[in-house]
Each structure stands twice: as C-alpha cells, then as structure tokens.
Amino acid sequence: MDRRDFLKTVAVTGAVLSVSRTKAMDILSQKLTAADGASVDLVAVMGGEPEEMFRRAITEMGGMKQFVKAGQKVCVKPNIGWDKVPELAGNTNPKLITEIIKQCFAAGAKEVTVFDHTCDDWVKCYRNSGIEAAAKAAGAKVMPAHLEQYYRRIELPRGKNMKNAKVHEAILDSDVWINVPVLKNHGGANLTISMKNHMGIVWDRGFFHSHNLQQCIADICTLDKKATLNVVDAYRIVKTNGPRGRSASDVVLTKGLFLSQDIVAVDTAATKFFNQVREMPVENVGHLANGQALNIGTMDIDKLNVKRIRL
C-alpha cells in the first residue's frame, strides 16, 4: 500500500487501537484538499466517538445540507440484521444513527425513516441493537421489513445475474436515502460494508446466495436510486465469525468512520482499514471489482480527493 494511505497508520492489537508515530501520521493529520479546490470525494476519520467522527466527516463534505434539502423525505438504512447489543458490533452503532437523523432534521428534512430487513427476529433486532430507541428518540419513524407487502419490484437492466428485485418501499418512497453499514467480517462475502448492506433493502436474499453472491451484491447496487451518502461505521468491527459474531473476542475497537458518495471507493477504503486488523486483500472482496466493472464506483482511491483526519 502507498505510504500516503490513511489506513497504513493503523495497527491493532487485541481490542486496543494504537497508531504508529510515522511520517504517515503527519499526512494523516493534514487536510488534504485538491489544489484547484475540488470537492472532497471521500473522508476517513479515526480516533473519536461515532457521533463526533460523523460530525467532522460531514463538515468536510460541505455539511448535510449538501445532501438533504428542506422538505425532503429521508430514509436512513443501517445494518440491524442481528439480535446483538451494540458492544458486539453486529449492527450499526446507534449513536451514529442518532447523529445522522439529527443532522437530517437540522438540514430541513420533512421526515426520516429507519428500517432493515433483518436476519434474526426483527423485533428483537430493532430493540436489542439500540437502533429503534435511538431512532425514535431522534424523531425518526421506524418501519418493519419482515413482510413481502413492504416491497415493490424494480428492474435492474445493468445487472449481470440479478435483473430485478423487490425493494423496500421506504427506499422507493424517499427523496434521498443514506446507507449506514457496519464494517465486519462475513463468511460468504468476506466483508460486509456499504454494497452488501443493500441486501437489507430487498425481499429475496436467497437469490443472492444461489446466483453468485459477489456478483449479485454488485448488481443490486446498479439500482437507479443510489444512496446520497454511504457512511461506514468502523467504530467497532467484527473481525472473525461474522456477520453475526460469537462473542466479545470477535470484536475490535478501532474507532474509524468512512464517508463518500462513491460506494465502491468507500468500501475499498474500509477494506484496507479492515486489512490492518486481519488480513483481507481487496482482491478477496470480489464485489468491489464487480461493482467497478459495472461503473458504479472506483477502487482507485489514490486518484480521488480524500481527507484523512485523526481526532
């Protein structure tokens, strides 16, 4: 990896994050802006709490009003797939969801809806993840996703293996939606991040597993209604036995966050981050290259305008 890479500064041992004092740290602390004042493509933040990292990241991107306009209906899509408490990192951190919802309303959103098509019992997932309470406390509407009646069929003409899918109405009826996955190990896809978080917006997840998982993950990301932001929660990550995890020994406190409109780029950056915890070359996460081949984003983050920030 290039020494300029933000992620190369990260060394993780056990459950404690330590950052090497190298020349790369000097670059990490800089505000890296293009000389021509071009807009920021990707923000990587480390060292803070979920809410403060997001506040810093969205500020570097120009503020939430760049993405959410007054009067709009917003859908926030976390990972709420598992009946796990926040400390076990099976789901998106509820503190991050709270902050995103608050920022949406501050930007003038008319309403904010939160949902996920869970793997475990949806009532327990919503409750024990802490996300239902956090979302409601911030003023959002929480929708279930456990019945087929909540989904409508859309076409995916650019998909290779998946040509259509039933997508949740919360996505389809929103003006904009924000994709908020948690970074973690996954037994089938190797990693689950922003692209794979799309499996939680569709009804038939079984199709993915029976028609080349890595390709179908890329295919669903070709839907016309793309997320206006992809916010990767890397505060705690499940390094082994994902996506559910078995115990606290699977979890590492890494205190990171990645933000971009480019879904392939943000997942590539998050994959490199994960690789500092456990070996995971980007080549092993096949849906990244598949997504790039479908022109939904780029893996070449060195050519993007990236801000790397340590709090």
How is the secondary structure organized here?
Blueprint lengths: L9 E4 L2 E4 L3 H6 L13 E5 L3 H11 L12 E6 L15 H13 L4 E4 L7 H7 L2 H7 L3 E2 L8 E5 L8 E5 H4 L3 E5 L1 E5 L3 E3 L13 H5 L2 H8 L8 E10 L12 E10 L2 H12 L11 H8 L12 E5 L1
Parallel strand pairs: 3-14, 4-5, 4-9, 5-6, 9-12, 10-12
Antiparallel strand pairs: 1-2, 3-13, 7-8, 10-11, 12-13
Helix pairs in contact: 2-3, 3-5, 8-10
3D architecture notes:
This protein is an alpha/beta fold. The protein has a single domain (6-12, 20-25, 38-310), classed as Rossmann fold (3-Layer(aba) Sandwich), CATH 3.40.50. The chain has helices at 23-28, 50-60, 94-106, 122-128, 131-137, 169-172, 206-210, 213-220, 263-274, 286-293; strands spanning 10-13, 16-19, 42-46, 73-78, 111-114, 141-142, 151-155, 164-168, 176-180, 182-186, 190-192, 229-238, 251-260, 306-310. The strands form 3 sheets. Strands 3, 4, 5, 6, 9, 10, 11, 12, 13 and 14 form a 10-stranded mixed β-sheet that branches. Strands 1-2 form a two-stranded antiparallel sheet. Helix 3 (94-106) links the parallel strand 4 (73-78) and strand 5. Helix 3 runs parallel beside helix 5 (131-137) and helix 8 packs across helix 10 (286-293). The radius of gyration is 18 Å and the shape is globular.
